[in-house]
Design a protein that fits this description.
The complex is a heterotrimer of chains A (about 325), B (about 230) and C (about 240). Chain A has 13 helices and ten strands. Chain A has about 325 residues and is an alpha/beta fold. Chain A has two domains: about 170 residues, Periplasmic binding protein-like II (D-Maltodextrin-Binding Protein, domain 2), CATH 3.40.190.10; about 90 residues, D-Maltodextrin-Binding Protein, domain 2 (3-Layer(aba) Sandwich), CATH 3.40.190.120. In chain A, strand 6, helix 8 and strand 7 form a beta-alpha-beta unit. In chain A, helix 3 packs across helix 13 and helix 5 packs across helix 6. Chain A is globular, with a radius of gyration of 21 Å. The relative contact order of chain A is 0.16. In chain B, helix 2 packs across helix 5, helix 6 crosses helix 7 and helix 8 packs antiparallel against helix 9. The longest helix of chain B is centred in the last third of the chain and has 32 residues. The C terminus of chain B is likely disordered. By secondary structure, chain C is mostly helical. Chain C is about 75% helix and about 0% strand. Chain C is built from nine helices and two strands. In chain C, a hairpin with a 6-residue loop joins strand 1 and strand 2. Chains in contact: A-B, A-C, B-C. The interface between B and C is large, with 49 and 44 residues.
């Protein structure tokens, strides 16, 4: 009897604290439970002096989510005692991949789907649709290049085909194949490398047979701007973009299954990964645990909408998740 | 279960704020002004150093060409070409030779300034009235004394005018210096080109810098040549 | 020594890029070669030409008129000073942030960039016409507009073309950063180097530099051609 009451009390306290965390004001990092300092310390990253002899250069690609992820990993590694250098905002996936193979950087976060399509030559119809299988395939591919792909994040952030609400209503668009009748009247705006990617324009042409009136390359950072200011009829966006909800953009369903899963995996050169050993693996896994799709969208929102720097936001993620003090 | 209590605070509703609208937000600017400080000083560094080096080189060239007239044409042609080449092209033409960084940016910025100063110094010296030169020679001044004690001082208004033009254009060109890997306010503009607050502050600081430099040189001109009225803005 | 040979090698690759098409470093698209370079050059010329056309149509009449009536001098002369102080990147960014991306918006920004030198020079060009010449023309019974058209304009042409020359080079240079505003010009290989590769970027830099020099030289020739012979017009340009 007594034991049950003690357990119930504990659960009530836990529920109260969780509710308190959710209900906080919007510009406050209210995620700190406070009552469980003991557990917080347990999940916090411990600085290991043995790591100080290892220098890790963390890179990233050239859009918000990548910069935030780069910062998160860089700061987490730093908290664990590694010497960390940052070379974020390198460029597109080919540039980053080349940089890590050449040793210019030691690690960067890549997406499983992107790796399969852009590096390992998977054709759209052979892509694994299951996130775990996609990760295994990517990990195998990277291993043959002397790179270690750490366990992936829970979130997957896919390329998506987006139109405004008005466009969707005007042409009755719900799925990507609905575009085949009207594509010749529409302009598509995408990143410069979109023209060559099977999970972008090239894929839309090959898998869906879409012929757009015009493709205009724009900087990735403008992908929502061009759509909402009326320049682009169709734009390529990412699932975790906060602007989708904010502007009420319509994402067209990928009915032919062109887009693979895109979980993020930290890709690191074998030599460096070996030095970190299993402790490094555990660290990355711990950092990844909180990176769900809603979390990633929140982090992106803090940079794109609240105009904070990726460095600040990366630090906020780590401290709000209890990984750093 | 209990270990997951510490987690990222996720907001439910889409953000409604001035920044999220990419608007002009005085509050945001006040809170985030420090991110413009370093780029501003990088910008000042690039501008001032480029002006100083460019001035020294072209002033020297002009003094030499003043006496050896055959030099004027070739120097004008060469500096003219350097002046015409767009700075952004110049950064990447230099890249294979000098790599990324301040050096490349400075070389391109200096080469742009050369024609302006060279031409203005020469014009200023040429415009010294013949009677004044004769008077100087009549007083027994040597050529060198004539140059430094009479001709250069009288050429100062023209020289300063050239310096003012050079300084404002250099500030403008230095905004592109980040393409060469040299930082500056342009990097800030580029980092969020759709955010009105960012564009206005970074761009505004550049314009302010140009205006301040222009004013400082004007003041210096008035101090150094009290016998002339300021030449009309050119 | 190795840096020099390496540099020469890079320039060689860049020249090769201009003439020969090859696959982009990321694979999947063709870049380089004369026709692809033309696909970049033509929008560049179109944008610059359109902006210059509008700028001339706006500033020359206004500058001529202000010079003719002798008013608005402060504005006309300082237009150039103010214009010089605004960096081209800031102007483009301002337009993108406040008005949006696209050809028309970008062209408007370039028009604003091009107006000051033309306006200042048109004004100054008319002001420096010998007053006696103007007086005698009026004495012959010419109306104001006729004086402008038949006397002041021809004599102001050299300075006007000087201003056009300055603006044109400026516009051609600034059109290089047009890709930031969503218009693909010769600046695309410079800004989006991943698609074109390092040799593509260097190739574009070379072509942009050549384009600017050609613009300068050809407009300079026009300027010399319109300078009346036998008239000693002192080469005092209002702006360099």
């Amino acid at each position: 009897m007594r034991r049950h009451r003690w357990l119930m009390l504990l659960m009530l306290v836990a529920a109260a604290v969780a509710l308190g965390a959710c209900g906080s004001d919007d510009n406050d990092n209210g995620g700190d439970g406070g009552a469980t300092t003991g557990d917080q310390a347990a999940s916090a990253i411990k600085e290991d002096p043995a790591n100080a002899s290892t220098t890790i250069t963390v890179g990233s690609k050239n859009f918000t989510e990548q910069k935030v992820l780069g910062e998160i990993y860089a700061q987490a590694l730093q908290a664990a005692g590694y010497k960390v250098k940052k070379e974020l905002n390198l460029g597109d996936e080919k540039t980053a991949h080349k940089a890590v193979k050449d040793g210019q950087i030691d690690a960067y976060p890549e997406y499983t789907g992107t790796a399969l399509l852009s590096f390992f030559g998977y054709k759209s119809n052979k892509l694994p649709k299951n996130p775990t299988k996609a990760y295994q395939a990517a990990k195998f591919g990277f291993a043959s290049e002397g790179l270690t792909a750490f366990p992936p994040t829970p979130f997957t952030s896919s390329n998506e085909v987006a139109v405004t609400k008005e466009t969707a209503q005007k042409y009755g668009l719900k799925k990507i194949s609905d575009l085949s009748k009207v594509a010749s009247k529409l302009t598509l705006y995408g990143s410069p490398e979109c023209r060559q990617r099977l999970d972008c324009l090239l894929g839309l042409q090959q898998v869906y047979g879409l012929k757009f009136k015009k493709f205009v390359p724009v900087d990735i950072a403008l992908r929502h701007e061009v759509l909402n200011k009326g320049q682009a009829d169709v734009s390529i966006v990412f699932t975790t973009d906060p602007q989708i909800k904010r502007e009420g953009e319509v994402l067209l369903q990928d009915d032919k299954g062109m887009f693979p899963p895109y979980n993020s995996t930290l890709v690191m050169r074998n030599a460096v990964a070996k030095k970190g050993g299993t402790k490094l693996n555990d660290l990355i896994t711990k950092v990844n645990k909180g990176l769900t799709a809603p979390a990633m969208q929140e982090l992106n929102a803090r940079v794109d909408l609240d105009k904070k720097t990726p460095e600040e936001v990366g630090s906020e993620y780590l401290s709000e998740s209890g990984l750093t003090q | 279960m209990i270990g997951l209590l510490a987690q990222l605070h996720i907001r439910e509703n889409p953000t409604q704020s001035c920044e999220a609208d990419n608007g002009f937000c005085p509050d945001w600017i006040a809170h985030n002004f420090d991110r413009y400080v370093d780029p501003f000083f990088q910008h000042v560094y690039l501008t001032v150093v480029a002006l100083a080096i460019g001035f020294l080189i072209s002033f020297g060239l002009a003094i030499i060409a003043y006496r050896r007239r055959w030099l004027i044409n070739p120097v004008t042609q060469v500096t003219g070409i350097l002046y015409t080449i767009p700075s952004i092209a110049a950064f990447f033409l230099l890249l294979p030779i000098t790599g990324r960084g301040n050096t490349t940016a400075l070389i391109a910025l200096v080469s742009y300034v050369l024609l302006i100063i060279f031409r203005n110094v020469l014009t200023g010296l040429d415009n010294v009235p013949d009677e004044t030169r004769d008077a100087g020679r009549g007083m027994g001044l040597t050529d060198r004394q004539l140059l430094w004690r009479v001709e250069v001082p009288l050429a100062l208004p023209e020289i300063m005018a050239g310096l003012r033009i050079a300084s404002t254009t250099t500030v403008g060109l230095a905004t592109l210096a980040f393409f060469a890997g040299a930082g500056g306010l342009g990097e800030q503009i580029f980092s969020d080109i759709t955010f009105k607050s960012n564009v206005v502050v970074a761009g505004g600081l550049a314009v302010l810098l140009a205006a301040v430099l222009d004013g400082l040189i004007l003041v210096a001109q008035r101090l150094v040549t009290p016998w002339t009225r300021a030449v009309a803005a050119r | 020594m190795t840096t020099t040979t390496a540099a020469l090698g890079q320039f060689g690759d860049a020249i090769d890029f201009i003439f020969n098409q090859h696959e982009s470093p990321s694979g999947g698209a063709q870049v380089g070669g004369l026709s692809k370079m033309w696909d970049l050059l033509w929008p560049h010329l179109k944008l610059s030409g359109a902006a210059m056309g509008v700028a001339c149509a706006v500033s020359i009449p206004i500058g001529l008129w202000l010079g003719h009536i002798g008013k608005g001098g402060f504005l006309a002369i300082n237009a150039s000073n103010v214009g010089r102080a605004v960096p081209s990147l800031a102007l483009i960014a301002f337009f993108v942030a406040y008005i949006g991306v696209g050809f028309t918006n970008l062209m408007l920004a370039l028009v604003l960039l091009a107006i000051p030198p033309i306006l200042t020079n048109a004004y100054t060009g008319v002001r420096q016409v010998d007053r006696d010449t103007v007086e005698s023309a009026r004495g012959m019974g010419l109306t104001g507009a006729q004086v402008v058209r038949r006397v002041e304009l021809p004599l102001a042409l050299p300075l006007i073309f000087g201003g056009i020359r300055i603006s044109a080079v400026n516009v051609v240079a600034t059109a290089t950063i047009a890709p930031l505003a969503g218009v693909v010009t010769l600046g695309d290989p410079i800004i989006n180097v991943n698609t074109y590769g390092d040799e593509g970027r260097l190739a574009a830099a070379i072509v942009v530099a050549l384009l600017a020099v050609v613009t300068e030289v050809s407009l300079g020739a026009v300027q010399r051609a319109v300078t009346p012979r036998g008239l000693k017009i002192q080469r005092r340009e209002a702006t360099p």
